[in-house]
Write a structure and sequence with these properties.
Non-ribosomal Peptide Synthetase Peptidyl Carrier Protein, Chain A, globular, TIM Barrel, nine-stranded parallel beta sheet, single chain, 2 domains, alpha/beta, 45% helix
Length: 317
């Protein structure tokens, strides 16, 4: 396995946890890094929040050396705000900045940010140019294939990203309109890989270990970014499928993750925020509706772990 180099960053392996709003917070990034994710991306950081403040911003900005190389992913529709926010964030000593060109959420894309920026390629060039000419850090971008199935401009956008000095490009092989539906178009990743000389990171529909090599063979991409599948099975970064994880190992993992959430967010908020992870973790066990409801409405960590333990034991019988 060849180590990928992005600017001045050498990655230890070829798998990366994808940035996901609401999921790739500090506790989960630490877990993924320990299991083998080669780089840590923040949840998207709204430039407006950095410049004007937000009550939850500090939690989104927190990272530790265990997560390095660490990347702040920037989001906005205004080139100057993005640059000013990056100047402020540079003081926290990240290893790179990434431009979010992929978030399809209506509240983001409708104002021309995230995947909404794909409709204004010239603005993408302005942003990448400003960042690469201001900082001594690698600048990367994460794109989708275009606004809609009839308006795919991924090759033009990829070349703009490269021509303005970016060190790598990650490609979620769906359009903004697709969001997370349908199938990822791996052929498009292969086209981008042939069209640019900077490293290409493939993303989309890597759901198990076999899919890792399948995407590499199909696209020729340099490394792979894994999102939703990693929530249900973070061991994928260790090249282990979910079926290989015993009930005892899984319980220990969930207990550790929950404790990390409580320590980071506080007992009440940590337990509430952990529910979205728990909902994905129990998919493998398919508990009945009543048990699932009791688990996800637990009011203490002890109650949660007691119910979760019974779900695992019941499944192992």
């Amino acid at each position: 396995m060849c180590a990928l180099v992005i600017g001045n960053i050498q990655l230890a392996n070829d798998l990366i946890l994808a940035p996901m709003d609401g999921y790739t917070d500090h506790p989960f990034r630490l877990i993924a890094a320990k299991l083998g994710s080669a780089m840590s991306y923040s949840e998207f950081i709204n430039a407006i929040d950095v410049l004007h403040g937000h009550p939850f911003l500090e939690h989104r900005l927190t990272f530790t050396d265990e997560e390095r190389p660490f990347v702040y992913q920037l989001l906005d529709n205004n080139p100057d705000r993005i640059l000013q926010a990056a100047i402020i964030l540079r003081k926290r000593n990240p290893d790179a900045f990434d431009l979010n060109l992929g978030c399809p959420a209506h509240k983001v894309a409708s104002r021309g940010a995230g995947a909404g920026l794909l409709s204004t390629p010239e603005k993408i060039g302005q942003i990448i140019h400003a960042l690469t000419h201001t900082f001594d850090l690698p600048i990367t971008a994460k794109i989708r294939l275009g606004p809609t199935d009839t308006d795919k401009n991924y090759l033009a956008v990829a070349k703009i990203v490269e021509e303005n000095g970016a060190s790598a490009i990650a490609v979620h092989a769906r359009t903004r309109a697709q969001a997370f539906t349908g199938h990822a178009a791996w052929d498009a990743i292969a086209e981008i890989k042939q069209a640019v000389s900077i490293p290409v990171i493939g993303n989309g529909d890597v759901n198990c270990v076999a899919d890792i090599e399948a995407m590499k063979r199909h696209t020729g991409c340099d490394t792979i970014m894994i999102g939703r599948a990693a929530i249900s099975n973070p061991w994928i970064f260790s090249r282990r499928d979910r079926d290989s994880i015993s009930g005892a190992e899984f319980y220990e993992f969930v207990e550790h993750h929950l404790k990390q959430m409580l320590a980071f967010y506080g007992d009440q908020a940590g337990l509430i925020l952990f529910r979205k992870f728990a909902n994905r973790y129990i998919e493998h066990y398919q508990p009945d509706r009543e048990t699932k409801t009791r688990l996800l409405t637990s009011t203490t960590s002890d109650e949660f772990l007691e119910i979760f333990g019974r779900i695992i034991k019941s499944s192992d019988k």
